[in-house]
From TrEMBL:
Residues 111-276 form the CRAL-TRIO domain. It holds the Pfam family CRAL_TRIO. Coiled coil: none annotated. It comes from the Eukaryota. InterPro entries: CRAL-TRIO_dom, CRAL-TRIO_dom_sf, CRAL/TRIO_N_dom, CRAL/TRIO_N_dom_sf. SUPFAM superfamilies: CRAL/TRIO domain, CRAL/TRIO N-terminal domain. GO terms for cellular component: membrane. SMART domains: CRAL_TRIO_N, SEC14. One of its GO terms (molecular function) is phosphatidylinositol bisphosphate binding. This is Alpha-tocopherol transfer protein-like.
Length: 308
């Protein structure tokens, strides 16, 4: 399976009859417009007011360098905050404070510097959207993940990069993301890669920092030893996220009650044809947007306020 390019030079890949690409175009479809209004309070009047108020709040935080005049950037934080500017402002602050506090995980987040997780097909966002229009991210957390080749830090950096890509899509901002964690073959040596401090960092990032609507986490093919791993994360999960975690084990029908088989791989009970799209194809697609990632990496808290 190879990467193709449309007339505008936008990369895409075909998986069966599905054309898959990063969908950065604005929302025009009636169903999405209505969903945004119903679930996110998104109307022209509310959007205009929220964008203006958020811009003013950001102007007052002189230590934060972000693209104030870029409405698309502001919308990325306003949509998951349901257009409450104060909430969006706090999310922006938390997002960049996290990146500042965890520099080893968050610096230089560009495809050229985050290749291992994709080389080994540990992370994928290249699948059709589910029946609710949600982007699906698959993370191979079991036998397909070899920590000596792809350290846990590289997995987390890859996850960040993949979700950064999804965050730029208006459709994903509205519909959200679901995550599938495939734990098949999880071993004790893999569990030992995780520490409580790492678990807390990841959970804090999900719950308080990243501007994305995480609608569900589906854990599949988990062996008994997974209980040991989940116990490390559980103390840090608030009720909202905990209620969105589903454990399916080897029961593929259980997963299918949540996710349309047309959006799932055959090994997960779905209908997507083999071979699957490998990580190299996804990396090439993300690498096409390398310059965009470099610009995004220039934002954040700065010691030299003259940047503004």
């Amino acid at each position: 399976m190879e990467l193709l390019y449309d007339a505008d030079g936008t990369p895409f890949v075909m998986w069966g009859e599905n054309l898959i690409q990063l969908e950065r175009m604005p929302i025009t479809e009636k169903e999405y417009v209505e969903k945004a209004e119903k679930e996110l309070r998104e109307t022209p009047e509310i959007v205009e007011k929220a964008v203006a108020e958020l811009r003013e709040m950001l102007k007052k935080d002189t230590s934060l360098f972000v693209p104030l005049q870029d409405d698309n950037y502001l919308m990325k934080f306003l949509r998951p905050s349901k257009f409450y500017p104060e909430s969006a402002f706090k999310r922006i602050q938390a997002y960049y404070k996290f990146r500042q506090s965890h520099e080893s995980y968050c610096s230089n987040l560009v495809p050229s510097a985050v290749k291992p997780a994709f080389d080994h097909s540990i992370i994928s966002i290249l699948a059709p959207r589910d029946q609710h229009g949600r982007r699906i991210m698959l993370v191979e957390s079991g036998e397909r993940w070899q920590p000596r080749l792809v350290p846990l830090s590289d997995v987390f950096r890859g996850v960040q990069l993949a979700l950064e890509s999804a965050m730029s899509e208006p459709r994903t901002q509205i519909n959200g993301v679901i995550v599938i964690l495939d734990m098949k073959g999880l071993s004790f040596s893999q569990v030992m890669q995780f520490t409580p401090s790492f678990a807390k960092m990841v959970v804090d990032w999900i719950q308080d920092c990243i501007p994305i609507r995480l609608k569900a986490v589906h854990i599949v093919s988990q062996p008994y030893i997974f209980n040991m791993l989940f116990a490390i994360f559980k103390p840090f999960l608030r009720e909202k996220l905990r209620s969105r975690i589903f454990f399916h084990g080897s029961d593929k029908q259980s997963l299918l009650t949540h996710v349309d088989p047309k959006a799932l791989r055959k090994r997960h009970g779905g209908l997507l044809p083999e071979p699957e799209i490998n990580g190299e194809v996804l990396w090439k697609m993300l690498h096409h947007y390398e310059e965009n990632f470099k610009v995004a990496n220039s934002y954040g808290y700065v010691s030299n306020n003259n940047k503004r």
